[in-house]
Specification:
alpha/beta, eight-stranded mixed sheet, globular, single chain
């Protein structure tokens, strides 16, 4: 049901309705801080879930078009209950679908989606789709897991060897090395790997901001430009 979707999948941290809304407000601020949305803009959210951010976009901004995509038909159905103006589409989990036309978006964002992707080829495909769908000068903001070598691996012989390999660049998720912990956790990135990944995708890195939210794992907030 919708309650399970909201607290069991979209927001696994909050325990109450107030905490849920507070976290949604925090995520909204992370996504839109410093972004001056214009009435002529087309905006796309990747992984819109139950529509908690889309509904806030509708209330706070004027825009030309607002689209949300998600891999779950159930999430899309719940998002329809939470939004009025947004166009909503289910996608295949590695593309943005036919609604994302070439060069059509001024701003694309994604919150807590890439942190669950555990295969680098899927990340690359999404970034290629983002670049295709952004207009020249358009921006993409998303978050990803941040690799903290001091805590990522144990101080065992194997763990110390893994830390050394990543520190020296002998291991990298860009080459398919797996560094995920737990079935719901995606790839964790060092700064150099993220910058290279975005460069290869044809996106210019504007900001790479490290964050460690309360009750959550270390992340990057990334802003890039086509």
């Amino acid at each position: 049901d919708e309650q399970t979707a909201r607290f069991g999948r979209v927001d696994t941290i909050s325990q109450t309705e107030q905490e849920y809304n507070d976290l949604a407000d925090r995520d909204f601020k992370d996504v839109f801080e410093g972004i001056e949305v214009q009435p002529s803009w087309n905006i796309l959210e990747i992984g819109c879930g139950v529509g908690r951010l889309l509904s806030r976009v509708e209330k706070r901004f004027e825009f030309q078009q607002l689209i949300g995509v998600d891999i779950s038909d159930h999430m899309i159905a719940y998002a329809r209950n939470a939004t009025v103006k947004a166009e909503l589409y289910a996608t295949d989990g590695c593309s943005l679908g036919p609604a994302a036309r070439d060069g059509s978006f001024d701003f694309i964002y994604s919150n807590d989606v890439f942190i669950h992707i555990d295969h680098i080829d899927v990340v690359r495909q999404y970034l290629a789709e983002v670049r295709r769908s952004l207009r020249e000068g358009g921006r993409f903001r998303f978050n990803a897991r941040r690799m903290v070598l001091e805590t990522m691996f144990a101080n065992t012989p194997g763990g110390l060897w893994a830390k050394l390999r990543y520190r020296l660049g002998w291991a990298s998720p860009l080459r398919g090395d797996r560094n995920t912990i737990g079935e719901f956790n995606g790839i964790a990135f060092l700064e150099r790997d993220l910058r290279q990944l975005l460069r290869e995708a044809g996106l210019k890195t504007v900001e790479l901001r490290p964050v460690h939210p309360p009750k959550d794992s270390p992340k990057w907030w990334i802003t890039c430009l086509k």
